[in-house]
Amino acid sequence: MFDYWRSKVPGEQDGATGHCPRRIDIHPGEMRALLPSISLYDVVDDNPSRLRVRLAGTRLRDYLGQETTGLMLDELEQGDGRAYWEVAYREVIRSRRPAQGVIEAGRPGGAKLFRFWLRLPLENEEGRIHMVMGHDVFLQSEKAHALASRASLQIA
């Protein structure tokens, strides 16, 4: 997903920096296998603290147990993770750079799952970050448990 996003950065081949792909540059047909794990978030009123779920792939919906399309990020049930996600999105928007991480995402009474996530900024025609594209993978493994125990927010 990161490589695909990076291939859409204008001028990347020429070494230009500071730009992000636009939503119009992203073509779902070019990443069909990833679509169930993809999400898109609109930045509302240019406020990095206000995000609306424009699209949530079926794997994210299945994990969360609800349809999230159209909801504001702060309307999603995130438990103790709300501040974590607010910082992650705010930093992606502020820095104009991708971020990644892994967190424990087990369901109460269920198997321990780990959420490997990637957030990628998308700019509009004026060069402002107006969307964030997400990619989430949920895994159950001991290796993921070890990674999550020492994970922190990473900006690429």
Concise account of the structure shown:
22% of the residues lie in helices and 26% in strands.
Structure description:
This protein is α+β, with helices and mostly antiparallel strands and 156 residues long. It has four helices and six strands. It has helices at 2-7, 58-64, 82-95, 142-149, and strands at residues 38-43, 51-56, 99-104, 114-123, 129-139, 154-155. It has a six-stranded antiparallel β-sheet.
Major beta sheet, strand line-up: 2-1-5-4-3-6
Shape: globular
Number of helices: 4
Low-confidence parts: none
Secondary-structure map:
Elements: H1 2-7, E1 38-43, E2 51-56, H2 58-64, H3 82-95, E3 99-104, E4 114-123, E5 129-139, H4 142-149, E6 154-155
Antiparallel strand pairs: 1-2, 1-5, 3-4, 3-6, 4-5
Name the features.
156 residues; alpha+beta; 6 strands; 26% strand; globular
